[in-house]
From TrEMBL:
Entry superkingdom: Bacteria
Pfam families reported in the protein's UniProt record: MmgE_PrpD_C (PF19305), MmgE_PrpD_N (PF03972)
Name of this protein: MmgE/PrpD family protein
Domain MmgE/PrpD C-terminal: 278-451
InterPro entries with a match to the protein in the record: MmgE/PrpD_sf (IPR036148), MmgE/PrpD_sf_1 (IPR042183), MmgE/PrpD_sf_2 (IPR042188), MmgE_PrpD (IPR005656), MmgE_PrpD_C (IPR045337), MmgE_PrpD_N (IPR045336)
Family that this chain belongs to: Belongs to the PrpD family.
Residue ranges of domain MmgE/PrpD N-terminal in the record: 5-244
Alphabetized SUPFAM superfamilies for the sequence: 2-methylcitrate dehydratase PrpD
């Protein structure tokens, strides 16, 4: 049997009973976190565009999260997948990419249409995520670094590759697909992917535009369409993971077919993903964690800070990372070390408030960004410092703050939200607090809405007990 077929069989055959209790719990928390990110995005400029497009697409059986609007299945999958990544506050697997939103977008839309149980949808979400991670490990090593500090293991291929295949695996489970059909659908997913590393081209633009590469909404919809096509008897490239197609189309990709099935059924990757507690690129979180520690430990106010130097991994690829000017839009702001540090120093709640007009263009934010500089942490030039031999991912980082006539310093290898031993601790209460903060932005002055948020949390954490997943989407609706 081909590796592609075996991988498809694993994605479809695993049952909820096969998941250890810790994985089930982590899956519910990740679902809660992903839903919170989507709700928090609804009032942003991109979020409002998603809502308008969804309304223009007509009505159907699937809910656009937080709105109560019922849309066609493909539209809802796209909308909810897109909303989950707007704030760039969603999970990130070892800085390899995001794929929970695409898997959840497809799973929720199909689950509603088919009136599937909460357990069915949770399992589709979980196996979609697992498929995405394993595909990422197939396409390239998670991260490697040479003795000159050059990193490999992340390409623009990885993000869209994981996302569309994650959504496809999730959708195929709910459609009742066979392993052969999912294998064919995976071949179509490969054909949906862009033919070159557009993330690098995108990253050369200091503005960055208002649409990120590897759009998670398109991934959710693309994976769903591949699954639908395969159920209708169509197919893509046969046994895609057994060929060298990826290596020929995307030069420099290191294929590892064994990674698709390594420890399948005994090794679960979902609990290892990083929860993001700030709305910015995950690469920023390492130095930001050190800076946040200094600010909180010493109670520093923004006007007390004279200068900040954030040192992180070498070979930072995007011009926006080092920019200290006013970010022109939400996407540019989420890729700016200076903006993230300014928001932390000013005590702006992590979420859509980071992208309000005053945060982007106000005098206080502008003054604080001007104090922030960016450089390399010399430890990052030593491959041993990245923890890769131990199966971890460290990003050596350092924050130096001049304030009150003193110099405060903190170093860090991990970021808040990392799962590794030694990283700053977080737990269920922290994930719930993040969800509450993001969900509350929909109706910040409504006591009734705040009470409903409590019920949302309870519903998600008991999603595997729901007979019909529509109970979940109804609970998440502002208009319900």
């Amino acid at each position: 049997m081909s590796v592609t077929r075996q991988f498809a069989d694993f994605a479809l055959s695993a049952s909820y009973a096969d998941l250890p209790a810790a994985v089930r719990h982590s899956a519910k928390l990740l679902m809660l976190d992903t839903l919170g990110c989507a709700l928090g995005a609804l009032g942003t400029t991109p979020g409002l565009a998603v809502r308008r497009i969804a309304h223009q697409s007509g009505s159907g059986p699937a809910t656009v999260l937080g709105t109560g609007h019922k849309a066609p299945v493909a539209t809802a999958a796209w909308a909810n997948g897109r909303l989950g990544n707007v704030l760039d506050m969603d999970e990130c697997y070892k800085v390899q990419g995001h794929h929970a939103q695409a898997a959840l977008g497809a799973a929720l839309a199909l689950g509603e249409e088919g009136r599937r149980s909460g357990c069915d949808v949770l399992m589709a979400f979980t196996m979609g995520f697992e498929a995405g991670v394993r595909l990422g490990n197939f396409l390239s090593p998670r991260v490697t670094v040479d003795d000159r500090g050059r990193t490999r293991g992340w390409t623009g291929l990885v993000g869209p590759g994981q996302g569309v295949h994650a959504a496809c695996a999730a959708a195929s489970r709910l459609l009742g697909a066979s392993a052969g059909e999912l294998a064919d659908a995976f071949g179509m997913c490969a054909q949906y992917m862009v033919g070159r590393d557009w993330s690098r081209q995108w990253g050369r633009d200091p503005d960055l535009g208002t649409l990120k590469y590897a759009d998670t909404g398109w991934n959710a919809q693309g994976g769903l369409m591949a699954a639908w096509h395969a159920r209708e008897g169509l197919r893509g490239i046969r046994d895609i993971f057994d060929t060298d197609s990826y290596a020929q189309v995307f030069q420099g990709v290191l294929l590892d077919p064994a990674a698709l099935l390594r420890d399948a059924g005994s090794r679960w990757y979902l609990p290892e993903t990083s929860i993001k507690f700030w709305p910015c690129c995950r690469w920023i979180h390492y130095a930001l964690t050190a800076f946040d520690h200094i600010v909180r430990e010493h109670g520093l106010a923004a006007d007390e800070i004279g200068k900040v130097e954030l040192r992180s991994f070498p070979m930072i690829p995007y011009p926006r990372f080092g920019a200290s000017d006013d970010p022109p839009n939400l996407v540019a702001a989420s890729f700016s070390f200076a903006h993230a540090a300014a928001m932390v120093a000013l005590g702006v709640p992590a979420g859509p408030q980071w992208f309000a007009d005053d945060s982007l263009h106000g005098e206080a934010a502008r003054a604080m960004r001007a104090k922030v500089g960016l450089g390399d942490d010399e430890r990052g030039y030593d491959p041993r410092a990245w923890g890769l031999e131990q199966g971890e991912l460290k990003v050596p980082s350092h924050a130096i703050v001049h304030a009150r006539g003193k110099v405060f310093e903190a170093t860090g290898d991990y970021a808040l939200g990392d799962s590794w031993e030694g990283a700053p601790r977080y737990g269920q209460a922290d994930v719930i607090a993040k969800f509450r903060r993001l969900a509350k932005t929909l109706a910040p002055l409504s006591d009734r809405w705040e009470q409903r948020i409590d019920r949302m949390v309870e519903t998600v954490l008991a999603v595997d007990e729901l007979d019909d997943v529509r109970e979940l989407t109804a609970a998440l609706s502002l208009e319900g």
